[in-house]
Design a protein that fits this description.
The chain is an alpha/beta fold and 312 residues long. The protein contains ten helices and 13 strands. It folds into two domains: 215 residues, Rossmann fold (3-Layer(aba) Sandwich), CATH 3.40.50; 63 residues, no CATH class.
Length: 312
C-alpha cells in the first residue's frame, strides 16, 4: 500500500497570541480527492500554505509526498501543482506562451496541446492574457497547475468566476487528473463542487478540524431524517393517509412526512394511492439534509460551543 500523499499530526500555526491552526491531525491517502471546507478565516489557507512549503509551522509534524514541506527541494516542488486563487499571469503574453513558459520549469511536463484542451482554452490559445475574462484567466491558472504533471495538486477555489458549464468542465479535468491515481487537496466554498469531486471532506473552524468523512456521511448525514413530500389533490386530499413509518409534519395540500425509513414510506404511499385509483402521486420527492445544511450546522454548533466555553 502506498504511503499517504499528505500526513499531518498536531499541526499548529501561531501569530503572536493568535493561533490560526490549532493541532490539526489529517491523513490523505494517495489518489484521494480531499475537500477542505470552512468559513473565511478558519485556517484553510494557512494549513494549505504550510503543506505547500510556503509558510512555516509553529509546531507539529507534516509530510507531503514523503517529505517535510519546510525542507522541500526543487525535485519535490516539481512533484506538486498549485492553483492559487489568482496567479497573476503575464498580460502581454498569449495563453499558449504562458503555458509553454511554465512547462519549461518542469522535468516532465504534459504535452502543451493536452493541457490547453484539458483547460478548455483551445479557442483562446493565441489570445493575450490581458484580453481574457475572469473565468478564462481561472482556466489559465488551472492549466498552469496541471502542466507539470504533478503527483499532488492543491486547488484553492479553482472555479471562482466560472459559469455553470465551465465549472462542470473543470470538474471533469479534475476527475481525469485523479483517474491516474493522483491526489487532490481542494478548498472551495461551493458545496456542490465538494460533493461532486471529493472522496472525503473535512470541516475546519477556528483552526480546528472538527469533522472528517465522506460527503454522504459527514455530520451523520446518511442517517439523518429524510422528508417525503407530495401534493395531496383530488382523491388524495380527502382520503385518510395510510399507516407508514414517520411523522406527518404538514399538509394537505403539501404533505410532508419526516421519516428514518423513506423507502418504506414511499412504498406505503404508492400502495395507498393505487388503492384509490391514482397511478401517479403529484410532486412526490424524498430529500435528506444537503451537504450545505450539514456544513452550516457543524459550524453553528462549534461556534455555539466556543461561545459557551468563553462565557464559562
Amino acid at each position: 500500500m502506498p504511503d499517504p500523499a499528505i500526513e499531518i499530526r498536531g499541526l499548529r500555526k501561531r501569530y503572536g497570541t493568535f493561533e490560526a491552526v490549532s493541532g490539526v491531525d489529517l491523513t490523505i491517502p494517495t489518489g484521494e480527492v480531499f475537500a477542505l471546507l470552512g468559513p473565511n478565516g478558519a485556517g484553510k489557507t494557512t494549513t494549505v500554505e504550510i503543506l505547500e512549503g510556503y509558510r512555516d509551522r509553529s509546531a507539529g509534524e507534516a509530510r507531503v509526498l514523503g517529505v517535510d514541506p519546510a525542507r522541500g527541494d526543487a525535485a519535490w516542488k516539481s512533484r506538486i501543482g498549485i492553483v492559487l486563487q489568482s496567479t497573476g499571469v503575464f498580460d502581454a503574453l498569449t495563453v499558449e506562451e504562458v503555458i509553454a513558459h511554465f512547462a519549461s520549469f518542469y522535468p516532465r511536463p504534459l504535452p502543451l496541446e493536452r493541457v490547453i484542451t484539458m483547460a478548455g482554452l483551445e479557442e483562446k490559445r493565441q489570445a493575450r492574457c490581458k484580453s481574457l475574462s475572469g473565468g478564462q484567466k481561472r482556466r489559465v491558472d488551472l492549466a498552469l497547475g496541471l502542466v507539470g504533471d504533478p503527483e499532488l495538486i492543491f486547488l484553492d477555489e479553482p472555479t471562482t468566476g466560472f459559469d455553470p458549464a465551465a465549472r462542470r468542465q473543470a470538474w471533469e479535468v479534475v476527475r481525469e487528473f485523479t483517474r491516474t491515481g493522483k491526489t487532490v487537496l481542494l478548498t472551495t466554498h461551493y458545496m456542490d463542487e465538494a460533493e461532486h469531486l471529493a472522496d472525503r471532506v473535512g470541516v475546519i473552524v477556528a483552526g480546528q478540524l472538527i469533522e472528517v468523512g465522506t460527503p454522504r456521511e459527514i455530520g451523520g448525514r446518511a442517517a439523518a431524517v429524510a422528508h417525503v413530500r407530495f401534493r395531496a389533490e383530488g382523491t388524495l386530499a380527502t382520503a385518510p393517509l395510510p399507516a407508514m413509518p414517520g411523522r406527518v409534519e404538514s399538509g394537505p395540500p403539501i404533505v410532508a412526512v419526516a421519516t428514518g425509513e423513506p423507502t418504506a414510506t414511499v412504498s406505503a404511499l404508492i400502495a395507498w394511492a393505487a388503492s384509490l385509483g391514482v397511478s401517479e402521486i403529484p410532486e412526490l420527492s424524498v430529500t435528506r439534509p444537503s451537504l450545505e445544511d450539514v456544513y452550516l450546522r457543524l459550524i453553528e454548533e462549534h461556534s455555539d460551543a466556543a461561545t459557551r466555553e468563553g462565557a464559562a
